[in-house]
Design brief:
Length: 140
């Protein structure tokens, strides 16, 4: 059984700025100190909240971008085609959608994230992997 000393909540994130209808890629290397157990994905964008009125969430357009994720350590794609944000992250007011099964990745696993901006405006995206760092995988 894992204890609080063996696992801590952790968020790996990539940030990217895309031009209107633009594309871009970002890479992520997991830490050397532990395995990572993925619970789900989360995304926030510069268009989610109206800065003039922070209480207003832009819920009418959750699919502001698509994403394609590749595990570059193994060469495996995590999907067959680019996914809309709402398919893996829910909508902009419910950013986190948990996976049904915990997925464990080893230390220093590398990912590439390919984004497509579906809007006619510039878009800043923070895309995160939410889960736990596992410091004692032999016990888990």
């Amino acid at each position: 059984m894992l204890t609080s000393r063996d696992a801590i909540p952790f968020l790996y994130s990539v940030n990217i700025s895309l031009l209107a209808n633009g594309t871009g890629s970002s890479t992520l290397v997991l830490g050397i100190d532990s395995d990572f157990e993925l619970y789900g994905f989360e995304a926030r964008t510069s268009q989610d909240i109206d800065l003039a009125n922070p209480r207003t969430a832009a819920t009418s357009q959750p699919d502001l971008f698509t994403i394609f994720i590749t595990d570059t350590s193994t060469g495996r794609a995590l999907m067959t085609q680019p996914a809309f944000r709402s398919q893996i992250c829910s909508n902009s007011t419910q950013n986190f959608t948990p996976e049904g099964v915990r997925i464990r990745f080893p230390r220093q696993e590398q990912f590439q994230f390919d984004f497509v901006n579906l809007t006619a405006a510039a878009l800043d995206i923070q895309f995160s992997l939410r889960g736990y760092k596992i410091f004692n995988p032999a016990v888990a």
